[in-house]
Amino acid sequence: MLEQLKAQPADALLALIKLYAADERAEKIDLGVGVYRTADGATPVFAAIKAAEARLLADQNSKSYLGPEGDMGFVRAIMPWMLGDFDPAGRIDGLQTPGGTGAVRLAADLLLKAGVRRIWMGTPSWPNHVQILNAVGLACETFRHMDVATQRLDFNALEAALDKAEAGDAVLLHGCCHNPTGADYSETQWDEIAETVAAKRLFPLIDLAYHGLGHGFEADGYGLRAVLSRVPEALIAYSCDKNFGLYRERVGALYVMTESPAQQASVQSNLAALARANWSMPPDHGAASVRIVLEDEGLTKIWLDELASMRARMRGVRDALAAHQAIGSVNLAAVGQQNGLFSVLQLTSEQIAALRADYGVYMAGSGRINIAGFTDANIPHFIEGLRAVTA
Ligand code: PMP
Q1: Which residues contact 165 (CB under 8 A, 6 or more apart)?
Q2: Tell me, what's the ipTM?
Q3: Which CATH architecture has domain 65-295?
Q4: What's the pLDDT score for residue 130?
Q5: Residue 133 has what pLDDT?
Q6: pTM (global) more than 0.90
Q7: Residue 187 vs residues 176, 184, 193: alpha-carbon distances, Å
Q8: Distance 26 CA to ligand 1 centre (A)
Q9: Where would I find the Aminotransferase class I/classII large domain in this sequence (predicted)?
Q10: Alpha carbon of 239 to ligand 1 centroid (Å)
C-alpha cells in the first residue's frame, strides 16, 4: 500500500534554515523563518511567560484531562483583548485549539458541517490556509490581495471577488499584520468590506495570528470589530503563538459569534465533537501560562511592555528600510507603511538566489522577508546586496 504514496516536496523554508546554518559567512542574514527576533537574533521566552510558567510549575497539582474545549479560563481571558469595546452580548464563545493552525482547521470543519462549500481568500496568503481549506473539502476561490510590484493593496480585486461571491459562501480575512505581505486594509476599507460581507450574507472567518504586533491591540482589532458589529455570525481563529512568543507550545483558540446567545450551546457542542475527532484535547501548558499572565495585573503589564518593545523594534526596522525609498524593482518605501513580521519584495528567483550566493541573504523563494531578521548593523549589507542584484 505505502508504495502508492508519492514523495512530497520538502518544506522550502526548513531547507532554507539548513542552508543558512551551514553558511560560514559572518555577515549572513536570515530573513526566512517566521518568528520574532531581537536585535541580537534571539527568540527569547517572554519574561511574563517565564514567571507564569514558574507559578504553573509550583501550583499545578494535576495533569488530569481537561476536555476538548481546553482551558476555558484562557479562552475567556483572551476575549476582552480581542474584542476591545465590542460587546458580544453573550453571542461569542470559543474553545482552545492547538495554535492558530488548529483554530483554522476547526473553523474550516465547522463551516463545512454548517453547509458552506466555497471560501474566498486573497493571495498570497499563509500557505497553510489553502492546504487546510482543501484538506477539509472547501473549494477555495482566490483573488489578488496585493500587487507585489507596486506594493499596493488590490482592493478592486477584493471588491470584484465579494461581488461574485454568493450568499452562504465564506470569506477568509487576515485581521491584521497580513502574512506574507504586511499590507493591511485601512479602517475605511474594513468598514466597506464589513458592509459588503453583511449585505451579501457571506460568512466571515477572521484569522488573527499577530494581534498586537502591528499598532497595538485596539488598532489591530479594528477590522475584526468592524465586521463583528455588522454581521449576524462569524468565526475568529486566534493565535497566541506570536503575541506571547509561545510558538512550539501551540496556543490558539477558535471563537464563534452566533446570531443569538441561545445558539451557542449547539455550536459549542459541534466544536467539541470536531475537536475530539481531530486532536481530542489541546495541549495545556502554553494556554495555562497565558491565562496566568492575563489573570495577574503585574504580569500583564510586563507582557504588554514586551510586546510594545517588539513593535517598536519592527517599526524601527521598517523605517530604516523605507528610508532607502526604491532600489531597482523593490519599493522599500511601502515596507515602512506595512505591519507585522513580514513583507514581500518584488524580486525574481534569480535575484533571490544571487542575494543568497553572493551576500549570504536568506529569504523565502516568494520574496517574503522577516522584518525581525534585520538589525541596524545588517541593513547596510542587505541594501548593498539589493543594489547589486537589481542593477
Ligand atoms: N494564520 C496565519 C496568518 C499565520 O501566519 C499563522 C502562523 N504562521 C497561523 C495562522 C498559525 O499560527 P500557529 O503557529 O499558532 O498555529
Answers
A1: 118, 120, 141, 171, 200, 202
A2: 0.99
A3: 3-Layer(aba) Sandwich (3.40)
A4: 97
A5: 98
A6: yes
A7: 11, 9, 10
A8: 31
A9: 27-385
A10: 7
